[in-house]
Amino acid sequence: AFRQVEAELGPVDILVNNAGIANLSGGILQETAESWDNVIETQLNSVFLLSKLAAASMAARKRGKIINLGSMYSYFGAGPLPSYSAAKGAIVQLTKSMAIELAPHGIQVNGLGPGYFKTELTQALVADEAFTAWLSGRTPAGRWGEVQELAGAAIFLASDASSFVTGHILYVDGGITASL
Question: Any residues with CB less than 8 A from the CB of 18 and at least 6 apart, and which?
Fold first, then answer.
């Protein structure tokens, strides 16, 4: 698929690794090995495999941007989501490792660490008044994030404005990680 994209559209200059799933297993005691493997495969292995393909192409041209989507759970764990937390934490270390390796090739590798955003996938939580009240009290900004706020951070990392930024995780979370 990657080769087909490059053949039809030209070389990839910016790769955003944003595939993801989560399993609210309830914790390590309830998580199955199959569920663990599925989350790690989707969250972490996809970042490695797509980045490897894109980086080879970018290195040949001496330029490129890779943006990996972590999470606030890259910074702190979540008991009910052990596979998700583990994968997102590993994405931070993979981002840093890739940044070190690929900087001499003109490639910047950074990540985004989203907090709670209103999306299609979070509609049930947004509608849950008790959860929204908890979130508002827990997040210094006192609210859910809007998708365009995350998009702005991604645009910065994809632009020349971040040409000297590499190996950084930009937490876009209304201050939740800063408050820990």
Answer: 69
Do residues 176 and 138 make contact, with C-beta atoms less than 8 angstroms apart? Answer: yes
Query: How far, in Å, are 22, 81, 82, 165, 173 from residue 103 at the CA level?
Result: 31, 33, 32, 10, 27
Selecting among 73, 75, 84, 171, the annotated active-site residue is 84
Tally helices (H) and strands (E) across the chain.
Answer: 7, 4
Angle separating helix axes 82-102 and 33-40, nearest 10 degrees: 30
pLDDT tens-digit map of 132-180: 999 999 999 999 999 999 999 999 999 999 999 999 999 999 999 999 8
pTM recorded for the entire structure: 0.95
Give the CB-side neighbour count of residue 102, counting CA atoms within 13 A. 31
C-alpha pair distances (Å), 73 with each of 55, 84, 87, 146: 26, 8, 9, 18
Tell me how far apart the alpha carbons of residues 65 and 68 are, in angstroms, rounded to a whole number: 10
Active site residue 171: no
